[in-house]
Amino acid sequence: MKQENHYQAIVLGAGPAGLTAGIYLSRSRIKTLILDTGTPGGQMVLTHEIANYPGVENMSGYQLASVMKRQAAAFGCKIKSNVSLENISLDAGVKKVKLQDGTEFTSDVVILAPRGRSRTLNVPSENKFKGHGISYCATCDGDFFTGKEIVVVGGGNSALEEAVSLTKYASKVTIVHQFDHFQAFDYAVEEARNHPKINFIMESTITGFFGNEKLDYVEIKNLKNNTITQFTTDGVFVFIGYVANTEYFKDKIALNQWGEIIVNVDMATNIEGVYAAGDAISKKIRQVTTAVAEGTIAALSASSYLHTIKSKKENLAFA
User: Fold this and answer.
1) Which runs of consecutive H residues, i.e. helices, occur in the chain?
2) Which tens digits make up the pLDDT trace of 123-167?
3) S-S: 298 plus which of 38, 211, 218, 267, CB 3.0-4.6 Å?
4) Alpha-carbon distance values, 201 to 99, 146, 198, 247 (Å)
């Protein structure tokens, strides 16, 4: 193993949690590598507007991610994006991460921050219309629906906030939600309900997507009386939460029944020297601010662990 490929800490994932961990670790003069299978920033870069991040009045998710990346790099953190993982060894002792191109990295600690991915409706023909009428990212695709009528699926903060942001492009937005109430914060519900371009179909769900080369209409099922109606639309945006990207860690680390990584208050997992943070851990609230806090705790806990094992080695050397 080449010495330059050994790091004191490896962070898997470059979302807000992973980038924050990289900032804190590298600023503490800990040799740190961040590996990400996609683009740094994760789901944050898909957010059109972040207006509730303390100290930042208004900024896009992409801008905030870019700032975090620059901060981490400025402190000496090395960031490698769009990598393909082949194997990970998280056993006690030296951790190993091997990429599909054959490159292998080792470290004394690992912070898992693999984020999550958009949850799908799991409806027949959903895959057929992905990118052809169905989207999971308002920032990415909103402009394509300028002057058109669209549907937003979901009832949480993301769904309502993105529905409002999509009114800048769409002529009409219809929110379809399975319950008779929303799970979003009051301000988000009020803003959506008071918007003249937004309508609501409650206690309902989409059961089918139809069209030829592009989406023409959907079938909406009323969950109270089971009636199904055809609803003409130019596009559907789905915001019903995220699934933890932890399939790769199955049988390698303790996960709950939803596939989320189990951690304690120090963000430590069941394996010594392995910590986790961000949307892939077991928790209730998923916000950029909570991910940043968890990345901070994981980095400080990892730093403390590194100091402990260093002290043990020094004591053994003088014994």
Assistant:
1) 16-27, 61-74, 126-129, 138-141, 157-166, 186-193, 288-318
2) 989 999 998 899 988 877 899 999 999 999 999 998 999 999 999
3) 267
4) 46, 22, 10, 34
Structure tokens at 292: 């940043």
Task: Tell me how far apart the alpha carbons of residues 30 and 14 are, in angstroms, rounded to a whole number.
Answer: 17
Give me 29's structure tokens: 């003069």
Structure tokens given for 43: 């789901």
- What one-letter code names the amino acid at 3? Q
Which amino acid appears at position 164 of this protein?
Answer: V
Band (97; pLDDT cuts 50, 70, 90): very high
Query: Are 52 and 78 in contact, with CB atoms under 8 Å apart?
Result: no
Which SS3 state, helix, strand or coil, does residue 305 take?
Answer: helix
What region, left, alpha or beta, does residue 149 occupy, with left being phi > 0 and alpha being psi -120 to 50 degrees? beta
d(CA 183, CA 190): 12
Q: Determine the Cα angle at 35 with ends 267 and 22, to 5°.
A: 50
pTM, full prediction = 0.78
Q: Is the pLDDT of residue 243 over 60?
A: yes
- Residue 115, φ and ψ in degrees, nearest 5: 65, -155
The yes-or-no verdict on residue 317 having pLDDT over 70 is no
CB atoms within 10 A of CB 51: 9
Looking at the DSSP bridge assignments, the partners of residue 236 are 134, 151
How far, in Å, CA of 45 to CA of 66, rounded? 9
